[in-house]
TrEMBL record:
Protein name, as recorded: Steroid 17-alpha-hydroxylase/17,20 lyase
PANTHER family recorded: STEROID 17-ALPHA-HYDROXYLASE/17,20 LYASE, STEROID 17-ALPHA-HYDROXYLASE_17,20 LYASE
UniProt record similarity statement: Belongs to the cytochrome P450 family.
Classification via InterPro entries: Cyt_P450 (IPR001128), Cyt_P450_E_grp-I (IPR002401), Cyt_P450_sf (IPR036396)
GO terms of biological process kind: hormone biosynthetic process; progesterone metabolic process
Pfam families (UniProt xref): p450
Species this chain originates from: Holothuria leucospilota (Black long sea cucumber)
GO molecular function: heme binding; iron ion binding; lyase activity; steroid 17-alpha-monooxygenase activity
Transmembrane segments: none
Keywords for the protein's UniProt record, in alphabetical order: Heme, Iron, Lyase, Metal-binding, Monooxygenase, Oxidoreductase
């Protein structure tokens, strides 16, 4: 009986101190307001894991464009305003992102997992330089090529009713892959099926409410979630590294086909200039992860 009472008192004290600390966060430390959270869980029970962005948008209607929520024990500030995001991006706190296991697992060495401001700025500088090159070279040609292909597919239906969703999704994917890797796909391509499979697994894993992010001990023992994540990462990395190696073998100076060529060119220039700082983030793996993060993190199946 005494043990039960003590446990009850300890639990009650924990809850009281939890909400005292939450009050201090809002009223003393002036952290942006947000919905009340629960001990251990935070606000995750208020979020739909399949549409977190919609839940956060709904919350912003009550708590403003800048508010905070808790993922488990960690409080995170949410920015839901373009001007605020832009000013934060150019400020000193852009790398102060919450540490999420699955995000680091899939995007390691990429700009999204940078913890140092200087390294993030270097990533940004290189990627801006890359986009300037691609927009001056083959971007318009690639868009024109895909538009013609889409029109041909529409014409093939011979004025019969059809759902354009699959064709438009494929066209969008082809534009991205053509710009990034110089590749295009058809609906029955096996490689396309692999892309959708690993992207779906990664997309389901990179969320704060995934079990491996909520329960850190799962990260260190064999389980179905870790197994599927490792399999998806291996499949993605193998495919992307094959793209890179093919480009490296066929690269010709003065002929820029896509973003991989742009970054190979920048890498060669850094080697010639002895720019060791830039070369640290221009390894083949850095290159493929940064391109994938920018273009393909939200590719979804038809």
């Amino acid at each position: 009986m005494l043990v039960t009472i003590l446990m009850f008192l300890i639990l009650a004290l924990y809850i009281v101190f939890y909400y005292i600390n939450e009050w201090k966060e809002f009223c003393v430390w002036k952290i942006p307001q947000g919905p009340p959270s629960l001990p251990l869980f935070g606000n995750i029970l208020q979020l739909d894991s399949s549409a977190i962005h919609l839940c956060l948008t709904k919350m912003s209607e009550s708590y403003g464009k800048v508010f905070s929520i808790k993922f488990g024990k960690e409080r995170v500030i949410i920015l839901n305003d373009a001007k605020v995001i832009k000013s934060t991006y150019n400020g000193p706190h852009v790398t102060w992102r919450p540490k999420i296991f699955s995000l680091d697992f899939f995007l390691e060495k990429g700009f999204m997992t940078c913890r140092e401001q200087h390294e993030f700025n270097l990533h940004t500088k290189i990627m801006r330089q890359t986009f300037k090159v691609i927009t001056r070279t083959s971007l318009c040609e690639k868009l024109h090529e895909e538009a013609l292909s889409l029109m041909e597919r529409f014409n093939s239906y011979q004025q019969m009713p059809f759902d354009p969703k699959e064709d438009l999704s494929l066209a969008s994917l082809n534009i991205l892959h053509n710009i990034a890797f110089g590749k295009r796909y058809h609906k029955d391509d096996e490689e396309l099926r692999q892309i959708f499979q690993y992207t779906e697994t990664i997309g389901n894993s990179i969320t704060p409410v995934h079990p491996v992010n909520l329960l850190p001990w799962l990260q260190n023992i064999p389980n179905p979630w870790i197994h599927s994540m490792m399999k998806a990462k291996e499949c993605r990395d193998t495919l992307l590294m094959n793209f890179y190696n093919e480009h490296k073998k066929t690269f010709q100076d003065g002929q820029i086909r896509d973003l991989v060529d742009c970054l190979i060119k920048i890498t060669n220039e850094a080697e010639s200039n002895g720019d060791n700082e830039a070369l640290k983030i221009l390894t083949p793996y850095h290159i493929i992860i940064n391109i994938w993060t920018i273009f393909f993190a939200e590719v979804t199946q038809f």
